[in-house]
Amino acid sequence: MDVKEIINLIDSQTPEDIALIEKAYNIAEKIHHGQMRNSGEPYFVHFFSTALILAEIKMDPPTIAAGLLHGSFKFDKISEENLKKEFGDEILFLVNGVTKLDRIKYHGVERHIESLRKLFVASAQDIRVLIIKLADRLHNMRTLEFLSPEKQKRMSLETIEIFSPLAYRLGIRKLSKELEDLSFPYLYPDEYKKVKELIKQKKAETLPKLERFMKSVKKALAENNLTNIHTDYRQKGLYSLSKKIISKGGDIDNVYDILALRIFTDSIADCYKILGIIHSKWRPLPGRIKDYIAIPKLNGYRSIHTTVFTGDGAIVEIQIRTYEMHKEAEYGIASHLSYKDIKNSENREMSWFSQFLPKSLGYFFKSTVTNQNTPGWMKDLVETNASSNGEDMLTDLKADFFSQRIFVFTPKGDVVDLPIGSSVIDFAYAIHSDIGNHIASAMVNGKISPLHAELKNGDHVEIITKKTAKPNRKWLDYTKTGMARKFIKQALGIKTE
């Protein structure tokens, strides 16, 4: 372990950055000297690895320093006062945030929900607390083999249900994919072995054809004066592939993106030009063209996806994006949290979460830094819904926010994201509670639609309201989102506690 491994990953190094990381490294190493993990490694390895992960996803130096120091209070080797004296309020807050979360033990639903609420409270004040926690969890998952089978399963379940989806919703696919795949074998060992063998066989069949096709694509682009490009391929994650196979009725031959060709270029205009050239030479598969540049995914992901027949019996998915889009796809919100931009940028693509945290809970940390990068859904989370009980909250988390999403359009063309299975009623409440409470009828794609109709990706929805219209109990059977159920119950006078 060498502090230079961390420093070399920082893009814009300054003498102050280097001094900060070296100081945090030296103090953390001294604090944990002589302490050992279950694996037999020095305990400091965990904090070094956490900081290394944070550096890999291009977090700012204070966050990396906090990653090194986030176990400082565990053994009472340094006081808050001394840490503040050495590093200031900002790093003290980040270390305190992760430390207080680590003190919560998961025993039963209510304790689990309490820890999640506190995680969200801390993250609402500074999103970097959550990102440090995700890096901490990733290294713990990498060393899960040294824990008891009971802890392995518990941690894997928490990771695959909560932490990996959170990383995905923050757009940090680099973390979410590995967290999923590390959890997979402990939760579903038989399925893991099966998918691992399938992907090995499929890769052996597909890779030679993909490489030949990649050369043909580069030649076609060069003939059209597009030479400033980069191509590679990505392999689908094992857990993600397992879910995809299930959705395709168990037939892996209907999964076309096990290996996907990726093309990177400089500009959005070139992305569309590349798409046109490819479609002029290779026939696209109907219904498989997805423009996430025009309509980004909820977590901010942007790219164009198309699937084409290669002409030699193969079908290949192609992903086209700019270099900047690729950086965002890998690092998500972390790509907006660079050292120089820490006070200036805000990811407005992420507008989910508007419930789950009682006002009465209040802040259990007080940050002296104002981090403008915290997504709106994290800020909203600490302001609303004083009535969610533990089981309802966990159910809604899984159903609303960690499920697959659809995009539905308002008459003005604004995009509303909803979980799959949502109805017209869910859409109305997503716009505003008053609109939901007074739905009289609805038009979906220009035709009158029942309020319980399940919406599909790309639907255009218009809500017609009347002052005399009001919710009824049947609406609860037709709603998918916790937001809609909450307001319906309020309107009907149904207690939620």
Write the layout of secondary structure elements.
Layout (H helix, E strand, L loop, with lengths): L2 H5 L7 H17 L12 H13 L4 H9 L10 H8 L1 H14 L5 H18 L1 H16 L6 H21 L3 H15 L1 H35 L6 E6 L2 H10 L11 E7 L2 H14 L8 E2 L12 E6 L5 E8 H9 L44 H6 L8 H12 L3 E5 L5 E5 L4 H8 L1 H5 L1 E6 L2 E3 L11 E5 L16 H11 L5
Parallel strand pairs: 2-5
Antiparallel strand pairs: 1-2, 3-4, 4-5, 6-7, 8-9, 8-10
Helix pairs in contact: 2-4, 3-4, 3-8, 4-6, 4-8, 5-6, 6-8, 7-8, 7-16, 8-9, 8-10, 9-10, 10-11, 11-12
Please name the defining characteristics of this protein:
11% strand, 3-stranded antiparallel sheet, Hypothetical protein af1432, Beta Polymerase, domain 2, Ubiquitin-like (UB roll), alpha+beta, 497 residues, 3 domains
Description:
This protein is α+β, with helices and mostly antiparallel strands and 497 residues long. The protein folds into 3 domains: 3-170, Hypothetical protein af1432 (Orthogonal Bundle); 189-329, Beta Polymerase, domain 2, CATH 3.30.460.10; 404-492, Roll (Ubiquitin-like (UB roll)), CATH 3.10.20. The protein contains 19 helices and 10 strands. It has helices spanning 3-7, 15-31, 44-56, 61-69, 80-87, 89-102, 108-125, 127-142, 149-169, 173-187, 189-223, 238-247, 268-281, 323-331, 376-381, 390-401, 424-431, 433-437, 482-492; strands at residues 230-235, 259-265, 290-291, 304-309, 315-322, 405-409, 415-419, 439-444, 447-449, 461-465. Strand 4 (304-309) and strand 5 (315-322) form a beta hairpin. The protein is globular. The model is unreliable at 104-110, 338-371 and 376-388 (pLDDT under 50).
